[in-house]
Amino acid sequence: MKIGIIGTGNMGSIIMEALLEAKAIPPSSLYIYNRTLEKAVQHQKNYPQITVCQSNGELIETCDLIFICVKPKQSYPLLQQHQQLFTRQKCVVSITSPISTDQLESVVSSSCIRMIPSITNRALSGITLFTFGNCCEKEWKEYLWTTMKMISTPIEIEENITRVASDIVSCGPAFFSYLTRKFINGAVNQTEIDETKATILASEMLIGLGELLKKKIYTLPTLQEKVCVKGGITGEGIRVLEDEIGEMFEKLFQATHEKFAEDLTITKNQFG
After folding, report:
1. Band of the pLDDT at 272, cuts 50, 70, 90?
2. What's the whole-model pTM score?
């Protein structure tokens, strides 16, 4: 099977590197294309057996499975321009949340899947979100599910929770990275610890926290209870968080959904 990736930006590169590292696909089966060819060629230097295509059309015509890793507003022109190349035997995987599988199926006759990855997949971890098109062949569903299981935990989601699920899985690492940096800065500004040491401590704490949750030693509520002794120091810190956070996360999801609504308007105008 020949697998193609159109767009080797952040997420396209993450999918490519994770699949190759996990040996989910052989490098000789991978074809890539990027509008700036130099970026694609750079990947070929790291993985000499992959093939760099000279155009979208060349990749689509050559490959059986095509990952479309471009910005939402760039997807429709790409699909429309090469509509005849997306034959029924092929599978199209879009990684952008504002484009539904129904919209994909309205343009191409291939099996259509929306797959929302996470940067955590690069560590062969985290979640991959799936929505399968109504006309998607069973063989493609099984292949993608099995393949992505090698680099993540695949979960199928309904259309109505696409944005919030993506916020948690895909945007979440950036949100919590930002909060962790603020946590570190607070420690540096208020105490004698330096940023390097505080960063090491905070990073290792997060890794340990992840392991506790992964091994199901504690749930989030029981973990807090175990650390937060009544009348202790942790309790004072929790009290500050309760006072200061307020409706911050509610506002965060409001903001992401408002931007999502703008993107939906653009894609609806394109797809009709």
Report:
1. confident
2. 0.93
CA angle at 158 for the pair 218 and 76, rounded to the nearest 5°: 125
Beta strand pairing call for 111-116 and 127-132: antiparallel
The CATH number of the domain covering residues in 3-157: 3.40.50.720
Instruction: Using the CB atoms, write b or e for 134-168: b if 16+ within 10 Å.
Output: eebeeebbeebbebbeebbebeebeeeebbebbbb
Residue positions forming the annotated binding site for NADPH: 56
The 3-state DSSP composition of the chain as helix, strand, coil percent (nearest 5) reads: 60, 10, 30
Rounded-to-integer distance, Cα 228 and Cα 40, Å: 50
Which residue positions form the known binding site for NADP(+)? 6-11
Contact yes or no for 92/66 (Cβ under 8 A): yes
The model's pLDDT over 116-157, given as tens digits with 9 standing for 90+, comes to 999 999 999 999 999 999 999 999 999 999 999 999 999 999
**Quick one: fold of 165-252?**
ProC C-terminal domain-like fold (1.10.3730)
For 233, the token pair is 């120091």
186 DSSP assignment: H
Binding-site residue set: 6-11, 56
